[in-house]
């Protein structure tokens, strides 16, 4: 499994021969790429409907959309997506097969209204657990990644994601203000008991400017990787 961070919360994840793009938003200072520079993924995963997570989703409408049914409906109408996983999206607790990957949708503590000329209910905000094995069949040979999305610190990270889904690596927001900050994110990493951790959702706007070293210094056991924009890491 290979990860590439394109700044903010935008990740490209390769599992076997399957390409996943998470929360495409390229108007951020960490990437040198435009959305048009990115090869078409097989799947686009959206954690929630805020503009800094779906801004460039419409550039990838040939992909299969993975999101809540409410957000799928919005993206089909707004961007022209035709294909969604399961034909209608998925919801919290579910696992779907996406090519060589298995994607489990988990809870995130956040908001999810889309503010246009009218407010759109995009369903529940979410995180994703991505693995090369179904969670019921995962073993020591499998590789599993948890992307927490935009979230506050919550006990579900310890009691459900860490205990049951057993990720090897976690991507967590550290920007504070809209999500948990560096020290709460470090607690999340320790609760999850992962080997590798990656910060996201910071330094994009003034309210979420952070020194990621604060996150690094507060993580007890995991190896923290502060990626540069468009930098990749191989989890295999």
From TrEMBL:
<dbReference type="InterPro" id="IPR050114">
    <property type="entry name" value="UPF0173_UPF0282_UlaG_hydrolase"/>
</dbReference>
<dbReference type="InterPro" id="IPR022877">
    <property type="entry name" value="UPF0173"/>
</dbReference>
<comment type="similarity">
    <text>Belongs to the UPF0173 family.</text>
</comment>
<dbReference type="InterPro" id="IPR036866">
    <property type="entry name" value="RibonucZ/Hydroxyglut_hydro"/>
</dbReference>
<dbReference type="GO" id="GO:0016787">
    <property type="term" value="F:hydrolase activity"/>
</dbReference>
<keyword id="KW-0378">Hydrolase</keyword>
<protein>
    <recommendedName>
        <fullName>UPF0173 metal-dependent hydrolase FYC77_10860</fullName>
    </recommendedName>
</protein>
<dbReference type="Pfam" id="PF12706">
    <property type="entry name" value="Lactamase_B_2"/>
</dbReference>
<feature type="domain" description="Metallo-beta-lactamase">
    <location>
        <begin position="19"/>
        <end position="202"/>
    </location>
</feature>
<dbReference type="InterPro" id="IPR001279">
    <property type="entry name" value="Metallo-B-lactamas"/>
</dbReference>
């Amino acid at each position: 499994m290979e990860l590439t961070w394109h700044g903010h919360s935008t990740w490209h994840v390769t599992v076997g021969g399957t390409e996943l793009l998470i929360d495409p938003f390229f108007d951020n200072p960490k990437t040198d790429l435009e959305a048009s520079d990115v090869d078409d993924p097989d799947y686009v995963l959206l954690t929630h409907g805020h503009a800094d997570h779906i801004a460039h989703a419409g550039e990838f409408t040939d992909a299969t959309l993975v999101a809540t049914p409410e957000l799928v409906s919005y993206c089909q109408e707004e961007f022209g997506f035709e294909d969604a996983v399961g034909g209608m999206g998925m919801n919290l607790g579910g696992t779907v097969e996406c090519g060589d990957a298995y994607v489990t949708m988990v809870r995130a503590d956040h908001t999810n209204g889309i503010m246009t000329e009218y407010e759109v209910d995009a369903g529940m905000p979410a995180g994703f657990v991505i693995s090369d094995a179904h969670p019921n069949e995962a073993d020591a040979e499998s590789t599993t990644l948890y992307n927490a999305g935009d979230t506050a610190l919550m006990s579900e990270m310890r009691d459900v994601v860490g205990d049951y889904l057993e990720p090897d690596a976690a991507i967590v927001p550290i920007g504070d203000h809209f999500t948990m900050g560096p020290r709460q994110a470090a607690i999340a990493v320790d609760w999850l008991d992962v080997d590798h951790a990656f910060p996201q959702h910071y330094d994009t706007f003034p309210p979420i400017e952070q020194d990621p070293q604060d996150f690094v210094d507060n993580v007890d056991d995991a190896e923290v990787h502060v990626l540069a924009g468009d930098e990749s890491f191989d989890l295999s």
